[in-house]
Amino acid sequence: MSQNFETIAKGKAKAILNAIPEHWRLNIAIPPADKQRDVTGKYMQQFLTAGEVEITETDAVGILEHTTTGKWSARDVTEAFCHRAAIAHQLTNCLLDIFIDVALEHADTLDAYYHEHNKPIGPLHGLPISLKDQFHVRGAETTMGYVGWIGTFEGQKGTGKERHFESQLVTDLRQLGAVFYCKTTVPPSLMSPETHNNIVGYLFNPKNRHLSAGGSSGGEGALLSLRGSPVGMGTDIGGSIRIPSSFNGVYGLRSSTGRLPYERTPNSMDGQESILSVVGPMATTLRSLTFIIKALLSMQPWLHDPMVIELPWRDEQASRLQAMSEKLGSSEKLSFGVLRRDDVVLPSPPVRRAIEMVVKALENAGHEVIEWKPPPHSRGLDIAVEAWMYEGGEDIHNAFGLSGEPVISHISRRYGNKPVEQKRASDIAANNIARRKYRKEYLDYWNSTANLTHSGQSVDAFISPVSPYGGTRPNTYHYVTYSTIINVLDYSSVAFPVTHVDKNVDVVDDGYVAANPADKQVSESCKYFPN
Amino acid sequence: MSQNFETIAKGKAKAILNAIPEHWRLNIAIPPADKQRDVTGKYMQQFLTAGEVEITETDAVGILEHTTTGKWSARDVTEAFCHRAAIAHQLTNCLLDIFIDVALEHADTLDAYYHEHNKPIGPLHGLPISLKDQFHVRGAETTMGYVGWIGTFEGQKGTGKERHFESQLVTDLRQLGAVFYCKTTVPPSLMSPETHNNIVGYLFNPKNRHLSAGGSSGGEGALLSLRGSPVGMGTDIGGSIRIPSSFNGVYGLRSSTGRLPYERTPNSMDGQESILSVVGPMATTLRSLTFIIKALLSMQPWLHDPMVIELPWRDEQASRLQAMSEKLGSSEKLSFGVLRRDDVVLPSPPVRRAIEMVVKALENAGHEVIEWKPPPHSRGLDIAVEAWMYEGGEDIHNAFGLSGEPVISHISRRYGNKPVEQKRASDIAANNIARRKYRKEYLDYWNSTANLTHSGQSVDAFISPVSPYGGTRPNTYHYVTYSTIINVLDYSSVAFPVTHVDKNVDVVDDGYVAANPADKQVSESCKYFPN
């Protein structure tokens, strides 16, 4: 370390601000959270022109309807999102990089292409896409939240790959016509449901700045909440796409493994394959997720990433479900399990209310909902935690050690302040077997629901809280089982917004007798929300 | 150990013979190999009726054409194969169990079903299928070649699962209408390209009894060679389906992982997931493999095995390739890479001749063949060997230790006589990364062949020797890279027969200067074939 980590971190934080043009700087003091709790919506709009508001409050599909038909230029769209993202960052510190000139230059080439050929370059022509600061993109650096990665390539200097090497997913999106303009903040190592690093600090929720924006794709969540991006790319090994989607009222997809390319994207504890992280989109509408996935699969990612399965988008399956959900076939209805609680923790009141809203909506639409009583999720969680600890935190502590920065508290809660003993091959094998058996037991349970539904078919999907929390204050997100169980099972899962917490409605039952400390912590979590 | 391992092993060997009815016993002394080198074909036929020969020399698809239309009874077919397998075992010791009564009883229920419903119970109605003695099947035990597994369930007594528990693959085949009648011999642990155990001894090749039948699905190979089975199920982690297919002149499929159910099938070093073993069929014709795979996929195995991918048989792909291979579209031709040698070992003369025969056949059919020059296979092999050694042989030595039997020499060659130190989590992670990078490099190479073909498309497949050997004397199969590279890459691969060794044609070049000891060993391997 030639420089103090704080100097490097401050330099980086300053460079992000400096990358914002003078005329986009907020020359006001940002009011504190208790004066201005919510900086989304109207509050954000005051800093923008009407045209910018129109563009940035259009979803990805809507934007593409304009950019692929020449109605909006890529430059105008890119500039509007750059501006809004720049404001978003000044309000919440949600970015770890912004590169407006690179983005606008790229947008100009797209406009020139459209002008010359009178057609879009691809299905994502001129769509700005934000990237979790884990993806490599040409023209920017990747920190993954570590001070020690600043000015390096994955912690190494002089590799020649700096600002040049690109993740396969990013290259694919680029070929489809997307424009990149910013990297969003993450907790170092990504192994946290909250977002805090030593570069830009703790990420608060733009909707309620007393609370966490979630993590680890927290910067994406906050930026989308502020409409500083129409679509962002995140990753998820225990809920890292879905938790910030849930906390920020946006949509997030955690596909099963082997569906989208992770190739050339760095990760923590790379090579740990028992519970694999996946990449996935987050967006302000559901149709945007669908559109992005279809576009990405059209690139045949299996030709560029050996971990991706050769499996195109299956239109016939999508259409069949769509028809059933629209009741086009009168006798055919969908059926759903509903997980009202797992075996350890009762979700907090607002989450319970949201689940009941979903159940009612499904039943009102004519679908069947049955109780979901699967094998204990606590057993599944143990498998994930074991996998996350295989190498005792060596990789993570090495990365913190690069700069000498202190270990962020919600990382040290799991990984301590130095590596612990590694697992042996036979421990890992035993955990793989446990995971396979758990998946088998769960699959058998799923099949058994055929005995419970009117159709005599097993349920089509199950509904579950993403998180037991309606929100969390900093450093209080402890219970991850609701999201992590999906990673253990390797199911596809989509997080979608249902409602907001309402303190007057979602009243904590003071008489509730918690079954265990985790249950108590969750049941009381809303109690301490600031007004 | 209450009993000496030899007593237990001899008891088991005797029980197999005793399970053969008196009138099927060969009351002749089996001539030694130098008197009767080849016991297939005519030699085998002398022990059978003309009707039995007709049935047993019909392939699986042909048999099913008869059994699913009522032309042949399941009983007659089953009995014929039981008889031929019983003879095969007496000639070669290729079985570890035969259960004729169970099989005939099952066949009778199938005949009764057909009689009552005038239709088959499923697409495999009445088809006898042999099982590598790794699969569990109701009514029989599984030894996996270990003396210590005799009279137990996977080495444990009193589990209640003995002779009752069944592998998912077997249950699926049973539901499709298949009949089970025997278990075929394997090397203990299955981690060998040869088949030798302390129960029934060394498995020689029925075509040339001086040579090895290959392994680890060697019993399947020998039984198929002798036409004691129309289809057998094997497993493959480094060539264990393809090597015995190659040595016995039959077809064998190693599908990619996640295609067929391994659920409820025991394995060595279970939980090692870097290089996964797969299950697959071996058969006397190519169309039999196709038929079995289609039938198995029709069972939707992903509903019963969480490791199986939801991916039905893709008719459109099969038809497209079929059409191209038949030159129906005149301009569309297939293109192939041909691996004439890897970076370490030149295949022996008969293998080189077989490869040239395939190349000529493809070119004569109008297809294009280009040289296959991939990333060095030796690097790939290192990754597999590392994965096989993760836990230092602990599982294997524990299993040998159950009975105190000595470690078979071609197992101890790799695993020694006691466990060695296990690998740590970060070693395993590093190997997983190496494997991913190797796959990526190979994939990029494959894509690059688009620059070399006339069509401008990358090759459709590549042709490679399964083994550098035309055959091996016992304990001399040393070089496994040709088959194992496929497991490292996780490609689908089919072994098919091309020709036989001909000492007059496949002359060893005495002037050949071997590049290394492995190369020398292979180049000279045919030299020492007995006449």
Write a structural description.
2 copies of one chain form a homodimer. By secondary structure, chain A is α/β, with parallel strands linked by helices. Chain A has a single domain, classed as Amidase signature (AS) domain (Amidase signature (AS) enzymes). Chain A is 38% helix and 11% strand. Chain A contains 18 helices and 14 strands. In chain A, the strands form 4 sheets. Chain A has a 7-stranded mixed beta sheet. In chain A, strands 12-11-13 form a 3-stranded parallel beta sheet, with helices on one face. In chain A, a hairpin with a 3-residue loop joins strand 4 (196-197) and strand 5. The A-B interface holds A 258, 263, 269-274, 303-307, 309, 311, 390-392, 394-395, 422-426, 428-433, 436, 439-440, 442-443, 447, 489-490 and B 258, 263, 269-274, 303-307, 309, 311, 390-392, 394-395, 422-426, 428-433, 436, 439-440, 442-443, 447, 489-490.
